[in-house]
Amino acid sequence: MKQIGIPTLQPRLKVLNREQALAIHTAALEILEKIGFKMEHPRALQLLSDAGCRVSNGERVKLPSYLAEKAIKSAPKQITLYDQRGNKAMPLVNGNSFYGTGSDATFTLDLETGQRRRSTLRDVANFARLVDGLDNIAFNMSMANPEDAPIENIYVFAFAEMVKNTNKPIVFIADSGRDMAKIYEIACVVAGSEEELQGKPFLLSYSEAISPLRFPENVMERLIFCAEKRIPICFPSGSNAGGGAPVTLAGAMALGIAENLVGLVVHQLVGEGSPFLFGPNVSALDMRSAVVSYGCPEWSLTQAALADMRDEIYGLPIWAYAGASDAKVMDAQAGSEAMFSIVTALLSRSNLIHDVGFLEYGSTSSLEMVTMADELVAMSRSFVEGIPVNDETLALEAIERVANTDTNSIFLMDDHTFEHFMQAHFLPKLLDRSRYDSWEAAGSTDLYTRCNSEAKRILSQNQVECKPDDVLKGIDKILQRL
Amino acid sequence: MSEFKALIEAVTKGDISKAVAETQKAIDAGGFIQAIIDEGLIAAMDEVGDNFSKGTIFVPQMLRSAKTMQECMKLLEPLLKEGDTSSKGKVIIGTVKGDLHDIGKNLVAMMMEGAGFTVTDLGVDVSPEKFVQKAQEVEPDIVAISALLSTTMPAMPQTIEALQKAGIRDKVKVIIGGAPVTAKYAQEIKADSYGADAGSAVTEAKKLMGIS
Questions:
Q1: ipTM (interface predicted TM)
Q2: CATH class for domain B2-79?
Q3: Which residue of A has its CA nearest to B106?
């Protein structure tokens, strides 16, 4: 009889015990019930009031706990994002993790000159094409606030540029219900019809309230639009510790979760069962510069904590960040901060992980950073897979074989090595392990230089499958009518 | 200067009750009010500003010192005589129309107050008309405009234009700031200055006032 194998422990980071998780959740509910929030969208206000919230002074709302608990129950436990050809690409469920880029960087590091400059639509296209060609980067965000797009339709143009240059899923931004409707129109053209888009969504909306506890009209417009159209949405407010939220991480998490729950409640009241990706952005406000840090250990810690809360309480897929840095250039700081957040996001089984490739606390994007992060994700994945223990991996037969060979054999020439090395080891492409002389002969390059060459290679060689002509024409028609 | 050593120390440390007590002591001792402000409080805040620039203290410590100074000023202001001045200049500050973000703007306001400016905070979503109306009312030296979103940036030149139309553009200095704002953009829209962060906003404001 074949024996049941030894299960593999895949290392998992835990940073909260059940008592801590419940206490933060309870505090979030208490914020909503006792302190309340400011809802500036009339319909959302009406919905909340009809559902049993207490409204005072026109827009101050206090939300009873049971409404939050009910919304947590009605939101789907799984969100699946498809690619733009309708193939299942990102099942956001349980401990599945997917990495992607970020949005709205004002600047980019120019691939040719290495200089920081304002980003353009061309950069949006380049990032999309790079992401399309990287195995470990699953989804795309604009990575730019393009200077050359008309400002009132900046997000529509950025979205159009993305769908023209990648077939991977897209996380997008809009300003209000107006431009979101245009983006939705483009997405319907890409998917073929509204029905096909809703059945196999390839996009997810990123929207955020203002911490502390303020819900502007245009933000809620977007949320309601998504709830009605069943477009997946995330709603992480900027509850950074020390700025939008208390400086202590527990309070910042409680506040961020409370804000997220307000979004979830309105969302589920509008479209019960519509997909909602849970989780706030709880980073730290740097106490010297007052910037929201993208390289701090606190953000990784709070999202690891959120993953624990997901497992203990919410059961909803969660939003996260990784692979970014506060460094101004892609240096050792950028590498260490990127790796820290990439590996901990995977170790804590965050689901949708964005902001890969950001420098300068999210103000500058870098194609080289994204390229490096692709490799760091692969490296992290090989670590998190753990050590499978079975007859093949214990390799006693190979040991016997090599030990009994008279010549000074090593395992390198044994068949077992040939058969297993690709699975047994992480094989880096960009991280250099060559001997000194060969490294020197190859131009004595550093990682930044190699990532630069690799990004250029992918951009020139990777063929992004082109959208059909009628789709491209349909998109242009929408842009022209703006 | 040594006369105010204890007061200066209390303000730099952000010890509100001690600083208030020291201020009261100085008043009771019959000191000149202007001297208590200049040689005590402002001197302390200059030291705090220096320490912050050098990186030896953090933002919350600086803000606590600013708050300490404000508490002391509450005792001193009613005693100021006509012609005495407690201010390095008057500033009105706000986040532009359509933009509801105010953390950065609040930080700038606090730090400007700490540096000795008199600040009127107009809040968020401030229309060009509101900026004009307040500028006419307060007669500020500096109008400080903030925007976090690139989509709300166009409200900055609109505000500057409104000041122009109202005929008060040349009576004020305009300084702008916020995440998407650059020095180049400040030039393009003919602002007088640009603050990359709260600290440099204060430095720039001082330059605009001709104080180093």
A1: 0.84
A2: mainly alpha
A3: A243
